[in-house]
Design a protein that fits this description.
single chain; about 160 residues; mainly alpha; 8 helices; globular
Length: about 160
């Protein structure tokens, strides 16, 4: 049907070049977001991350389950805040920037602390260690943000 439509509309030559595209190119074109959608995704994901982090701090003082809820909300909030920037520049570019030689150490520390926080809370049941990893998450996240700011100022 598409072939008939292209022949009748005089776009037969363009259709052939369209069919020669690779699957990756087609997927890239189908998944690109407009700037407004990117900003909305960034704001939404960042707000969810901030709300989860603040909610984690609020539930910290609930007896027995407060520390566990804090760890879950805090870690999920950090993951959402980290993923929010992927909306602005795209996931591949974000991952390349995270693995840049000047930011690789901060990224490795932050991701390791994210995993170790959850391991300390649920597997090892050591909440003091989990809180230490939460603090290290905060420092690594801040270090990464400071490195971004310095790199922008230097350019």
């Amino acid at each position: 049907m598409d072939k008939l439509k292209s022949v009748l509309s005089g776009e037969e030559g363009r259709t052939q070049t369209t069919q020669d595209r690779t699957v990756l190119q087609a997927a890239n074109e189908a998944s690109t977001l407009g700037w407004g959608t990117r900003v909305k995704g960034f704001v939404g994901c960042f707000v969810v991350g901030c709300v989860c982090t603040l909610l984690g701090v609020c539930v910290l003082f609930i007896p027995r389950i407060g520390i566990t809820l804090f760890i879950v909300f805090y870690t999920f909030g950090n993951v959402c805040a980290l993923c929010s920037t992927m909306f602005l520049m795209g996931p591949l570019k974000q991952l390349k920037r995270m693995c840049d030689k000047t930011r690789a150490l901060a990224t490795a520390i932050m991701l390791t602390c994210l995993v170790l926080t959850l391991c300390a809370a649920f597997w090892w049941k050591n909440f003091g260690l989990a809180l230490l990893f939460c603090i290290l998450q905060l420092f690594a996240f801040a270090w990464d943000a400071i490195l971004k700011l310095v790199s922008v100022c230097i350019k």
